[in-house]
TrEMBL record:
Belongs to the fluoride channel Fluc/FEX (TC 1.A.43) family. Na(+) binds at G90, T93. Keywords: Cell membrane, Ion channel, Ion transport, Membrane, Metal-binding, Sodium, Transmembrane, Transmembrane helix, Transport. GO terms for cellular component: plasma membrane. The gene is crcB. GO terms for biological process: cellular detoxification of fluoride. This is Fluoride-specific ion channel FluC.
Length: 139
């Protein structure tokens, strides 16, 4: 698959889009994604007593699947991408939390977990982008 066969959520500079409506799509998706991340993180945290940041790993990995599926799916156009990709998935996933939690593992002397967190995040993230992209092209 080449980059030319994948959707992007960046409209053509010559398109006649309503920027106000585009902002509304991003806003609604972002609000929903942030609440979904918070809720899922709380739910996972209540069921896990591990020092490893499993909730962030799971949420970011799920977001990788989402973005692969959304951008590869030829039926999802710009308004849907603004809502689901830029808005929802952008707010749902969090690089800053991942970075902070990795730093906290280092500070706590959990060096193996601090090493495994980025490796698992990148490996699982890439694998789920591939799976999502594959499923998205089947739609």
């Amino acid at each position: 698959m080449t980059s030319q066969s994948i959707n992007t959520c960046t409209p053509s500079p010559h398109s006649r889009r309503n920027i106000g409506l585009d902002i509304l799509y991003v806003f609604c998706g972002g609000a929903t994604g942030a609440v979904a991340r918070f809720s899922l993180s709380q739910w996972i945290g209540a069921r896990s007593n591990a020092s490893f940041p499993i909730a962030t790993l799971f949420i970011n990995s799920l977001g990788c699947f989402f973005i692969g599926f959304l951008l590869a799916n030829p039926y999802i156009r710009t308004p849907g991408l603004l809502l689901l990709d830029v808005g929802f998935t952008g707010a749902f996933t969090t690089f800053s939390t991942f970075s902070y939690e990795t730093w906290r593992l280092i500070e706590q002397g959990e060096y193996l977990a601090a090493l495994l967190n980025p490796l698992a995040s990148i490996g699982l993230g890439l694998a789920l982008v591939v799976i999502g992209t594959s499923l998205g092209t089947l739609a």
